[in-house]
Specification:
This protein has 280 residues and is α/β, with parallel strands linked by helices. It is built from 13 helices and 6 strands. The protein folds into 2 domains: 76 residues, 434 Repressor (Amino-terminal Domain), CATH 1.10.260; 192 residues, Endonuclease, Chain A. Strands 3-2-1-4-5-6 form a 6-stranded mixed sheet, with helices on both faces. The N and C termini lie far apart (45 Å). InterPro entries: Cro/C1-type_HTH, DUF5753, Lambda_DNA-bd_dom_sf.
């Protein structure tokens, strides 16, 4: 894969699986490579990489005899040291950098949003208005860096390297982020994005009432030839879910699409709201 973060994520998941199969505790495994248990957990979650000698020591501790598997994992460790385009933005939070890496390696993202426009579809002005309202009051420089990174991420869509299926609550279309002019331009941008063959937009109208997962936004990242990952952004920390959770969230996402208007009707609603509520 071309994303070092994704490679680390996959390598970490493999190491966690091997440790659990070997019935080795986190503390004991950490001791075998002379790191803390918290560091090993960071390796297993893909937040940091691991060097060849330490990886070999872990594989020996887990009694991994399969030479092909050992070489594959060592190759992943080497690949995980590569730097993505986002590495030059050193001030980005680690959790955000990790997400960008996964996003860059994905072939499809299924994104459900209840409050804001999906990041991959935000205009520059909308993204700036969003970032400026951070409770921790980022500096002007930090705001501009985050906006720049968000626009860079959008090349995945405009260059056709990623398929996006986005489902939004109707509230997203009415919320006055940045003011009337900004939201009007944002709605126009959604209409333009929907013309791309790799973008599908659907809106769940207010009249639908209650529906699945209406209190929680999430994104499902699907990768070519590899298991998917669910990403849920939270106030106290981001959550990545794997395995059965991916299938459960996929079932929920399909239900959300059933509750939403068709793509054609959704675009008609976006245009109607833009023209009725956000006149220049």
């Amino acid at each position: 894969m071309d994303s070092p973060t994704f490679v680390r994520f996959q390598l970490g998941a493999q190491l966690r699986r091997l440790r659990e199969e070997a019935k080795v505790s986190t503390d004991k495994a950490a001791e075998s490579i002379e790191v803390t248990a918290s560091t090993l957990r960071r390796i297993e979650s893909g937040k940091v990489g691991i060097k060849g000698p330490s990886l070999t020591a872990l594989l020996n501790r887990y009694d991994v005899q399969d030479e092909e598997l050992r070489e594959t994992l060592l190759s992943m460790a080497r690949e995980g040291k590569a730097r993505g385009w986002w590495a030059k933005y050193s001030d980005l939070p680690q959790v955000y950098r990790q997400y960008i890496g996964l996003e860059s390696a994905a072939e499809e993202i299924q994104d459900f949003q209840t409050i804001v426009v999906p990041g991959l579809l935000q205009t520059e002005a909308y993204a700036r208005a969003m970032t400026s309202e951070d409770a921790f009051k980022p500096s002007t420089e930090a705001i501009e860096q985050r906006v720049t990174v968000r626009l860079e991420r959008q090349k995945l869509i405009t260059e056709g390297r990623l398929r996006l299926v986005a489902v939004m609550d109707e509230a997203v279309l009415h919320r006055q982020i940045g003011g009337a002019e900004v939201i009007r331009d944002q709605l126009t941008a959604l209409l333009e994005a929907a013309k791309l063959r790799n973008v599908t937009l659907q809106v769940i109208p207010f009249r639908e009432g209650a529906y699945a997962s209406m209190l929680s936004s999430f994104a499902i990242l699907n990768f070519p030839g590899s298991p998917g990952v669910v990403y849920i952004e939270g106030l106290t920390g981001d959550l990545y879910a794997e395995g059965d959770d991916v299938q459960r969230c996929t079932t929920v996402f399909n239900d959300l699409r059933s509750s939403a208007l068709s793509p054609t009707a959704s675009l008609e609603m976006i245009k109607k709201i833009r023209d009725a509520e956000h006149q220049p």
